[in-house]
Amino acid sequence: MRRRAKRKIRNFRGVRTLRARADTAPAGLSVAYGRMGRMSEHPTGDALPEYAERVLDVAELIPPGRVMTYGDIAEWLDEGGPRQVGRVMALYGGAVPWWRVVRSDGRLLPGHELRALDHYREENTPLREAPASAEGHLPRLDMRRARWDGVTGGPADATAGGGGAHT
């Protein structure tokens, strides 16, 4: 186990900055900045946390044209909460269909609205048109019709014998 470098907070003319101590080696980030991936792509070669693997596995199960909320995935796993699922998706979600894991209000992921919208239109995901007064006039997901319950209409229905339902 590697020790992290201790950091001191110093004030320079009212500006707070972090400075690494000179007598310690610089600490590396636990996750590569700006890169998302699954275990086989993890830059350090270390395995992803077990919880992250389970979250990503659920995201891969969501059928095209359907979505699950961060809270739905946490409930389906019976562990964590929406923020933990969101954190996993933010760090590692680039290798899975990230656009199928959404906010509960149906708003598109900030900063990725247009990319997500392209995926939703390609997959015929139910959308609600935005009113003309809405900022950016971007549609929202129709959560009543697009939300997947984790059981019906998914990969388990396509295989003989089912067996994919969460208990």
In terms of topology, how is this protein built?
Blueprint (H helix, E strand, L loop, with lengths): L6 E6 L2 E6 L29 H12 L6 E2 H8 L4 H11 L8 E2 L10 H11 L3 E2 L11 E2 L1 H4 L8 H4 L9
Parallel strand pairs: 3-4
Antiparallel strand pairs: 1-2, 5-6
Helix pairs in contact: 1-3, 2-3
Explain what you see.
- The chain has 167 residues and is α+β, with helices and mostly antiparallel strands.
- It is built from six helices and six strands, in the order E-E-H-E-H-H-E-H-E-E-H-H.
- It has helices at residues 50-61, 70-77, 82-92, 113-123, 143-146, 155-158, and strands at residues 7-12, 15-20, 68-69, 101-102, 127-128, 140-141.
- A two-stranded antiparallel ribbon has the order 1-2. Strands 3-4 form a two-stranded parallel ribbon.
- The longest helix has 12 residues, at 50-61.
- It is globular, with a radius of gyration of 20 Å.
Strand content: 5-15%
Q: Number of helix segments?
A: 6
Order of strands in the sheet with most strands: 1-2
Straight-line distance between termini = 37 Å
Rg from C-alpha positions? 20 Å
Q: What's the count of strands?
A: 6
Shape, please?
globular
Order of helices and strands: EEHEHHEHEEHH
Structural class: alpha+beta
| Main sheet specs | 2 strands, antiparallel
The percentage helix is: 25-40%
On the 0-100 scale, what is the average pLDDT?
74
Oligomer description: single chain
Would you identify the regions where 5 or more consecutive residues have pLDDT less than 50? Answer: 1-41, 158-167
